Amino acid sequence: MSAGDEQLKAGTSKEWNWHPDLPVAVTPLFSWPPRPIATLRWFVTNWLPITEYLIYALMAWAVWAWVVPPLEQMQHLSWGWVSQLWARNLILMTFFAQGLHLWLYGWKKQGDDFKFDRRGLAKNARVFLWNDQYWDNVTYALLSGVTVWTFYDVIVWMGYANGWAPMITFNSNPIWFLALFLLLPVLQSFHFYWLHRVLHVPWIYKRVHAVHHRSVSVAPWSGFSMHPVEHVGYMSLLLIFLVLPAHPTHFLFIGYSLALASATSHAGFEKLVLGDKAHLKVGSFHHQLHHRYFECNYGGPEMPWDNWFGSFHDGSPEATERVRETKRHMHSK
């Protein structure tokens, strides 16, 4: 049995300060023959007991209930409610990204426990604004990212306020209402994979996506640090709510899953250590492999697109060699 076929236990290795159990797991939802028990277990572990998805869903409900301006107010453009949306998004992005950054990199509350890459953030590197990865990432995330996010927010909220966007409620369609929370992350993964493949077309990569990939050793602010053109594409999934029957809480939920989750997926750590035993899963080793090796894992573990199209890196040495061979072949052209 080859090393790639064996179960590699979580821990340190030659290439990583720490890695989870390998091979990397992806959703069994599309397995053939079907694996209903494994699929159910996948959804349960992604939602319970306390997970990112649950946190974003609860946040979406709270914001809709207490913070969103009345829909009647959003029927027409006004700096009042638009600036309120922008400020809220700015505060949430800063709270998530800077909070994680301080805990993991500023205060180093858990040292290097569960940290993937041995390297830290780049300093005195001319590729970044002000030669500093941290301030470069913050600038792109807040000035470009939050602004583009708010732009799409304004369009969809006006859609709900004026009846352009189909709206359901829990009482009108409880099954679809609940099912959407399970299906939307799958749709998000579908959108992200195909957008990401386009971004890796050499001409586009050099002019757009390279801004994001300068952060080889990622940290919370790296996730939402992108070229403005990439922000436009990345957040464009929000426009699906102009045609998809849904509730504003679903719209808020997927907005947080796109923007705020970029901070956690790029945290550079697999888990947060809270107290002595409380571990909250944050970082994505699946995506960390993409930042290390580039031409692999274009999607997320919610859909097996990479498995189907031959770009999946499961963390094994064999997968690393395959990706390196692919890159050598691409560069030879």
Task: Please explain how this structure is put together.
By secondary structure, the protein is mainly α. It is 53% helix and 2% strand. Strands 1-2 form a two-stranded antiparallel ribbon. Helix 2 (52-66) crosses helix 8 (248-265), helix 3 (79-106) runs parallel beside helix 8 and helix 4 (133-162) packs antiparallel against helix 8 (248-265). The protein is globular and about 60 Å long. Mean pLDDT is 91; it is low at 1-6.
Spell out the key features of this protein.
about 325 residues; mainly alpha; two-stranded antiparallel ribbon; 11 helices; 2 strands; about 55% helix
Topology:
Elements: H1 36-47, H2 52-66, H3 79-106, H4 133-162, H5 174-199, H6 202-213, H7 228-234, H8 248-265, E1 271-274, E2 278-281, H9 285-293, H10 305-308, H11 317-332
Antiparallel strand pairs: 1-2
EC number: 1.-.-.-
Domain Fatty acid hydroxylase: 182-311
Main location: membrane
Provide a short characterization of the protein structure.
This protein is mostly helical.
- Low-pLDDT regions: 1-6
**Roughly how many Å is the radius of gyration?**
20 Å
Determine the number of helices (DSSP H or I, runs of at least 4 residues): 11
Q: Alpha-carbon distance between the termini?
A: 34 Å
Class of secondary structure makeup:
mainly alpha
Beta strand count: 2
Q: How would you spell out the order of helices and strands?
A: HHHHHHHHEEHHH
Q: How many individual domains?
A: 1
Percent of residues in helices comes to 40-55%
Strand content: under 5%
Residue-averaged pLDDT, rounded?
91
Q: How are strands sequenced across the largest beta sheet?
A: 1-2
Rough outline: globular
What characterizes the major β-sheet? 2 strands, antiparallel
